[in-house]
Design goal:
InterPro entries: Cro/C1-type_HTH, Lambda_DNA-bd_dom_sf, TransReg_Diox_bact_type. Keywords: DNA-binding. By secondary structure, this protein is mainly alpha-helical. 70% of the residues lie in helices and 0% in strands. It starts with a helix and ends with a helix.
Length: 176
């Protein structure tokens, strides 16, 4: 949990500085103090759900922006590659032959051990006959990122279920 708190703080500081805002301005914008923002940025404190929602609203970013990690993304993309490969009945060797991506890199990516380069993902997408954005725009990909973000905030399973249910309701009514 300490890593995610530190990561949130680092991304918060970067975003605040990118927008040339002071800690006091951000604190005022979300109804807290500059010392609270300092504690968040230094990884000394984890925000409440209410304050986290205020932060993402203040900065106009999506729910996972401050908490998303490459590890989550590479694991999800790796699972997508494996699922597509197995759906087509291909071995890793067949995907290698069709894409030109190294056999061992494909296997390690499918296991979430490494992140493939954009060029490798493009070649794999071409082999499957899909757009590269398929790996990043899927509903399951985004829901998984949101669930991981909720967990890093310390939400209970019931609270996470309510968040996902809320998102599903908004998607059905085109409110997102």
């Amino acid at each position: 949990m300490r890593f995610l708190t530190h990561q949130l703080g680092t991304k918060l500081r970067e975003e605040r500085k990118r927008r040339n805002l002071s800690q006091a301005e951000v604190g005022e914008g979300i109804g807290t103090s500059s010392s609270y923002i300092s504690q968040l940025e230094n990884g000394e404190r984890k925000p409440s759900l209410e304050n986290y929602l205020a932060l993402i609203s203040f900065f106009g970013v999506d729910f996972t922006y401050f908490l998303n990690t490459e590890d989550n993304d590479k694991e999800i993309v790796g699972r997508e590659i494996k699922a597509l490969r197995e759906k087509r009945g291909w071995s890793i060797g067949e995907l290698r032959d069709r894409s030109g991506v190294d056999f061992f890199r494909i296997g390690r990516a499918e296991n979430g051990e490494i992140e493939l380069s954009k060029e490798e993902l493009e070649r794999i997408a071409d082999a499957f006959g899909i757009d590269i954005n398929y790996f990043f725009c899927r509903y399951e990909f985004n829901v998984s990122r949101i669930i991981n973000s909720c967990k890093s905030l310390g939400l209970t399973d019931n609270q996470i279920h309510l968040v996902v249910e809320f998102i599903n309701d908004c998607l059905k009514t085109n409110k997102l």
